[in-house]
Write a structure and sequence with these properties.
The complex is a heterodimer of chains A (about 725) and B (about 60). With about 725 residues, chain A is an alpha+beta fold. Chain A is built from 22 helices and 27 strands. In chain A, strands 15-27-26-25-16-23-24 form a 7-stranded mixed sheet, with helices on both faces. Chain A has a 6-stranded antiparallel sheet with strand order 7-6-8-14-9-12, with no helix packed on it. A 6-stranded antiparallel sheet of chain A has the order 17-22-21-20-19-18. In chain A, helix 3 packs antiparallel against helix 4 and helix 5 packs across helix 6. The N and C termini of chain B lie far apart (about 75 Å). Chain B is elongated, with a radius of gyration of 24 Å. The longest helix of chain B has 26 residues. The chains are: A alpha+beta (about 725), B mainly alpha (about 60).
Chain lengths: ~725, ~60
């Protein structure tokens, strides 16, 4: 089952699973950078006999495959992917982390070299430009040109390598990407500059080349950082399960620690207090108390009798328990959720794909325009043809256009971080600006996840205060998490002696000479004469939740609740917060269905959740936000992560996101406008290449400064209506 | 003016040293934590550290 046990190096670290006669695996394919790469992998895999399904996510480069194990093996699939020039890397584990680390460091080095190189070249270029007007010794000009050549060469071939490689890959696949025109401009400008340096006359464009590379790399680096953050955190979800377990030898009763993948159905395992139950199983020997909040989101621990099912991923809240494994580790409930999550992620519609298609269209036109310029100038004045061609290629470079969005997103990201909202995925800001519906989980999101007493029904002549004090004295003896609700009511004067806890039933004890009991049915306090009081325990609504919901409505958003909790609790919260739409007792699948229905009705939904059972819903939402203080796992699935225990940042974040989108639109309009204005000037020969490069840099700077305005906007008082989507 | 003929090649050497130092720093992981550093400021200051907790335990 575990493919890693075979000795093939290609398979090392890869994990696959088999269920219902189907093999499943997910891996990362290094080298995917566009929709065309994804299509190429899909085509090559679909040609394999026995392959059932391929899902490819371009943004986090994940390939998810389902195959027929009798006709195909994972090794064959990986080999096919590798043969197409993409390197398959295991999703979870060291190799994946190391691959990302290497990618990041390479990018940092490339940017560092390009930045140092272009700064230095700008100084030499200033000397050359000044010399062109004021006169310069030919030998000095020669030296400056050669120095420029020495510095620009490593910048082009080391820093610019990903761009050049991308263009080559595009050409080999016979598609036209943005990399093609950019590389054409870079290589033409570089070759002409080398040529002019060697013949000691004419213009050199080395500074334009390096500056161009620097701006392009910065934009890509911002995009890569966001992608890495997102995938690292989702991989953490799969790592929640321990990788070893304590197996019990049934004859000797001795326990040994063994790797999880050696566990088989029917094994007995011991799980200590507070430890994670590693697999699905059944309780044996003694009654157990388990906290399933990680898997189901329910805050109350459950009693499980011998023979009852246990969910992998839940926590042992009672004494050490013994379980019999009912399903192998990779088929456990938590793994199922991980798979559901991965699937939901790969299904997400991507804006990036639209941009990629547009780029191809754009590139064809730029190349036609360039060729036209070359031909016309060749007929009029061959000497002017090359500068004009270069000016057209530089002027059409979508440099400002390509950083217009990333810089604004980066500024918004840091502004949001100041509010305690972390952006985990780069297009989350755009998603947040475009939503019209907010779907909220209840437990741990609208409520604090801490139990409190919401209602007391007195049934005897006992006073409210005394009933609470007696209950608190009894509950003080309990380890049950709900006992925390009574803690504030404990009184030093009323002490319980001779207390006994019956797991799942309640507590009995002697107080002031009489025998009291608290427990089933519900949470009922009774003595020998009968019931005295009945308590309703509920989660407290978070401070400020009311204000937040009102603010969200002011922003023109529809607000609704989707909770796994019982109807009565959900209705109470919905009434208090004046939320009309509330779904209760929803399983993860139900929530997903509810979300899909909203999306099909044309709504763009923000899901705010907490708890691992929200993972699939969070991933399928147009944009998702997880509460950071909740179970650590929920953080992994959110596009946005709310670090503070308060919801107050949510409406502010939406305001900032909308402002960001407005800035992005201004930036795109400016950058496109500059390109359109510069192209005729360049084609007519009115704009030398260095002016085109300078104009482009200034245009880029303007875009950057415009984006920096986002750092200073006041989200408190700004209220702007929802705007239409970007495209 | 003649000194410029020496200074310009020297500047190439300097930028080479700068690039080498930067690459060295990247390989040592100096730029790995840019993201977490920006989040550090958001964490609450009154979170007790392990060392502070240990100090609070009375020694026998």
């Amino acid at each position: 089952m575990n493919a890693a046990t075979q000795a093939a190096p290609l398979l090392e670290g890869h994990w696959s699973s088999e269920s219902d006669g189907e093999g499943h695996a997910i891996f990362t394919a290094e080298g995917i950078h566009c929709a065309n790469c994804a299509r190429s992998i899909r085509q090559t895999l679909e040609s394999l006999e026995g392959l059932r399904n391929v899902d490819i996510n371009v943004v986090n480069r994940r390939v998810s495959v389902i195959w027929d194990p009798s006709r195909l093996s994972l090794e064959r699939i990986l080999r096919q992917v590798a043969a197409k020039g993409f390197r398959p890397v295991p999703l979870v584990g060291e190799a994946a982390v190391r691959a990302q680390l290497q990618e990041r460091r390479d990018a940092q080095k490339r940017i560092g070299l390009a930045a140092l190189g272009s700064m230095q070249l700008m100084m030499y270029a200033a000397g050359l430009y000044a010399g062109a007007f004021q006169g310069i010794e030919p030998a000095m000009a020669e030296l400056l040109r050669i120095t420029c050549l020495v510095i620009a060469t490593p910048v082009l071939f080391y820093s610019g390598a990903p761009i050049l490689r991308g263009a080559l890959a595009d050409l080999r696949r016979r598609v036209l990407g943005m990399d093609v025109t950019v590389s054409l401009a870079l290589v033409l400008a570089y070759l002409a500059s080398v040529f002019n340096t060697l013949r000691s006359s004419g213009d050199v464009y080395f500074d334009s080349v390096t500056m161009f590379i620097l701006f392009l790399l910065l934009g890509r680096y911002l995009e890569m950082r966001g992608r890495h953050q997102a995938s690292q955190l989702t991989d953490a979800l799969a790592r929640t399960l321990p990788d070893t377990a304590q197996r019990i030898d049934r004859s000797t009763q001795g326990a040994t620690r063994v790797p999880l993948n050696e566990i088989a159905t029917g094994d007995w395992l011991r799980v200590g207090t507070g430890q994670v139950i590693p697999v699905d199983g059944r309780v044996v020997l003694a009654r157990a108390l388990v906290d399933e909040s990680l898997v189901t989101g329910e805050p109350e621990p459950h009693v499980r009798e011998p023979g009852d099912a246990l969910l992998g991923g839940s926590i042992n809240a009672g004494a050490a328990l013994t379980l019999e494994v009912s399903r192998p580790p990779h088929e456990s409930t938590l793994h199922g959720i991980v798979r559901l999550l991965e699937h939901a992620q790969s299904e997400r519609p991507r804006l990036g794909l639209a941009a990629e298609r547009m780029a191809s269209w754009f590139v064809v036109r730029v190349l036609i325009l360039t060729a036209l310029t070359a031909v016309v100038w060749y007929l009029i004045d061959p000497a002017q043809a090359f500068p004009a061609v270069l000016a057209v290629l530089v002027a059409t470079c979508p440099c400002a256009l390509s950083i217009a969005t990333p810089v604004a997103i980066a500024a918004a990201t840091s502004r949001l971080a100041g509010l305690g909202v972390l952006v985990m995925r780069s297009d989350a800001v755009e998603g947040l600006a475009n939503i019209d519906t907010v779907m909220l989980d209840k437990t741990g999101t609208l409520t604090a996840g801490r139990p409190g007493i919401s209602h007391i029904k007195l049934q005897g002549e006992l006073s409210r205060e005394r009933a609470l004090a007696i209950a608190a004295a009894l509950e003080a003896q309990s380890q049950h998490p709900l006992a925390a609700a009574f803690r504030p009511f404990a009184s030093g004067a009323i002490v319980c002696t001779d207390a006994q806890e019956m797991a799942g039933e309640g507590i009995t004890g002697t107080i002031a000479g009489s025998r009291w009991r608290i427990g089933k049915p519900g949470v009922t306090l009774s003595d020998d004469h009968g019931q005295s009081a009945r308590f309703t325990i509920a989660d407290e609504i978070r401070d400020g939740a009311q204000h937040t919901v009102a603010a969200l409505k002011d922003l023109g958003l529809r607000v609704q609740i989707a909770s796994g909790d019982a109807a009565a609790n959900v209705e109470h919260v919905a009434r208090t917060l004046e939320i009309d739409l509330a779904g209760a007792a929803l399983r993860p699948e139900d929530k997903l269905q509810r979300l899909r229905a909203e999306q099909q009705a044309g709504h763009r939904v923000l899901m705010l959740g907490d708890g691992i059972n929200d993972g699939p819903v969070l991933a399928a939402a147009d944009v998702s936000m997880a509460m950071g203080r909740g179970s650590a796992i929920a953080q992994t699935a959110g596009d946005l992560l709310l670090l503070r225990e308060s919801l107050a940042a949510l409406p502010k974040a939406i305001v900032i996101a909308r402002r960001t989108l407005a800035v992005v639109r201004q930036n795109l309009r400016w950058a496109a406008g500059y390109n359109l204005a510069a192209i005729p000037l360049a084609a007519l020969g009115l704009m030398p290449p260095w002016v085109a490069a300078l104009g482009m840099s200034l245009s880029s700077l303007l875009v950057v400064f415009n984006a920096r305005r986002l750092l200073r906007i006041d989200a408190e008082t700004t209220s702007i209506p929802a705007t239409t989507s970007l495209d | 003016m003649a000194s410029v003929y020496l200074l310009i090649p020297l500047s190439i050497l300097l930028i080479g040293i700068g690039v080498w130092a930067f690459f060295w720093a990247v390989d040592r992981g100096q730029f790995e934590d840019l993201e977490r550093a920006s989040e550090l400021a958001l964490e609450e200051d009154d979170m007790p550290t392990a060392a502070a907790n240990a100090a609070r335990v009375p020694r026998s």
